[in-house]
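Before the break, one more example. Copy the sequence into your notebook; we will annotate it together after we see the structure.
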Amino acid sequence: MHQSSIIILGIESSCDDTAAAVISNGKVLANIIANQEVHKKYGGVVPELASRAHQQNIVPVVDAALKKAGISKNDITAVAYTNGPGLLGSLLVGSSFAKTLSIGLDIPAIAVNHMQGHILAHFIKELDEEKEMPEFPFLCLTVSGGHTQIVKVDDFFKMKVIGETIDDAAGEAFDKVAKMLQLPYPGGPLVDKYAKEGNPDRFSFPHPKVDGLNFSFSGLKTSILYFLQKELKSNPEFITENIKDICAGIQKTIVDILMEKLLTAVEETNIKQIAIAGGVSANSGLRTALQSLTKKDIKVFIPKFEYCTDNAAMIAITGYYSYLENHDFSKNSIPNARMKL
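Here is what the structure looks like once it is written out:
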């Protein structure tokens, strides 16, 4: 450990983005993502096609990250990779590549929990800027296509889920509702785009009754479906004519549900620092609602857009802290599609 720079190569391949990043002493030197266009025509991610695309993308993406960072593979201290949760075929491509590289270079391979990565994205430093980071303990709302959780974060690797969805994730609800509105995949960002121009109070939808800090979005989805079916009967052009207001009402409902539980969590834990993570944290309605909490003396941390969605910088930063803490880096860890925090 006498090396002056700890350089971590991060690899993320949990779903349909192949990503590689290089972090030196906690600062990002490169963060490269290859998106897969192939899924658009199917209206969702096709696992078999995703893993094939990862196989084609992984070498060029890692190569591009090393070039952008201005380092050679021999400068890497350790390689960190996503070990789960995610699509098994996709995870296998990234983990096999990382382990093989680590054997070839005789460096540690660090298995990273994808959800932990999203939370620790708050600790990524940029080369040329100072930024404030959350202090432990803080609450993190992780919202993505597959997860909706409130996590109490006591330390880099001491995290406890104190509330989570009992059915669909918020991101999944956005995408499924977008499908009902006949918007192309991925629909979540389009709902957000239309919502910005609509009236959020024109159509209102029920909030589910769920105990404690848990969430539920499947009932909301059903009530939106029935609402649309009823309106379309009397006016077949209902969606086209009212798309902005419908999206605004749906977005407001989802954001309100998330915020209600988050505020309850603040009251119950008395923790006044809130961070947000995961793909849905790019949603403008959620960002605005969170920023308004500063009036209540709550400190809010919102990552840059590029660190909200799946990226390898968050895997590299988690690997960096894992390396500093001398975790066990066995090459025997097996990718786990349903890995828990």
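Residues 238-269 form the longest helix (32 residues). The beta strands are 7-12, 17-24, 27-35, 78-84, 109-113, 138-143, 148-155, 158-164, 273-277, 299-301. Try to locate both features in your own notes.
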